[in-house]
Write a structure and sequence with these properties.
By secondary structure, this protein is an alpha/beta fold. The protein is built from nine helices and four strands.
Length: 277
């Protein structure tokens, strides 16, 4: 594993871990089994993630994994729309950073099945990150039920992603490979643990060390529990909150969304969050 260094306040060069990603993929495939995604999918996922990496990472939102993407889905591409910024990857993957995920009208060829429903809960998390304390996140411009025009939603999502990037907020997944296949159960807990540990040691840990954020906020108790020891060893303040699908009251979910805003406004706030592990 190559060594990485980062200096606070200095623009960081793009991270290139492609060789390590391939090696890590070879480790996780036997753990997941025959249905594991091909390496091309992982490269496409990382292309989207690295495009939105801030020059200076302040806060990492640490989730579990992207959603399973098939090789045939990878061939679907975003339409060459004027709104798309220069260099934006156009390959389809089931990752929130891909603005075609959940937006069939923006693809050259729509995806019929499994349904291209996206992850609207993560757009609410993103919006919460930039919402001032005491204010309810306004997600209407991002929601098909409230904004019917797909290109209007695209413009709203791109503005949000650009603002997150300029504010140093970056979403990273703990697993390099998808751990959720639409319509299927997740792998057994011991398999998920093994995949998360292999991903960390082969790829993700180095990526977080290179990013050198001021704080890490885990999205989901499972990720926080599975990688607690590794996160502690980073010597970066971190905490965890329940995932958006958790069975909590609306008041508890509102407090969690307010927590995203508080941490992204001041990363030191992460140290005051009660432990979930």
């Amino acid at each position: 594993m190559r060594a990485f260094t980062a200096e606070l306040g200095v623009r960081q060069p793009p991270i290139s871990l492609n060789q390590d990603l391939g090696a890590t993929h070879r480790e996780v495939v036997p753990l997941i089994g025959a249905g594991a995604e091909p390496l091309d999918i992982l490269h496409a996922v990382e292309a989207h993630r690295q495009y939105w990496r801030p020059d200076r990472v302040r806060v990492v939102l640490f989730a579990e994994s992207h959603v399973y993407t098939t090789a045939s889905e990878l061939a679907h591409r975003l339409r060459p729309l004027a709104e798309l910024p220069t260099g934006l990857p156009r390959e389809f993957v089931r990752l929130v950073y891909n603005v075609g995920y959940g937006e069939n009208q923006l693809l050259e060829q729509p995806i019929a099945a499994p349904r291209n429903s996206g992850t609207p809960q993560y757009w609410k998390i993103f919006q919460s990150c930039l919402t001032p304390a005491g204010t309810v996140p306004d997600c209407a411009p991002l929601q098909p039920s409230r904004t019917s025009d797909a290109r209007s939603r695209l413009r709203a999502k791109l503005r949000l992603l650009m603002n997150l990037k300029s504010n140093g907020v970056w979403l990273v997944d703990a697993s390099v490979a998808a751990l959720y296949v639409p319509g299927q159960s997740k792998p057994a807990p011991n398999v998920r643990q093994a995949v998360l540990e292999a991903s960390w040691h082969g790829y993700i840990g180095a990526m977080l060390r290179a990013a050198a954020p001021e704080a890490i906020l885990c999205i989901g108790v499972g990720v926080a529990r599975s990688l607690k020891r590794q996160l502690d060893q980073l010597a970066i303040p971190w905490a965890g909150v329940h995932q958006p699908q958790a069975h909590l009251s609306s008041e508890e979910h509102a407090r969690i969304h307010a927590t995203y805003g508080a941490v992204c406004a001041d990363p030191r706030y992460v140290e005051s969050i009660p432990s979930v592990v």
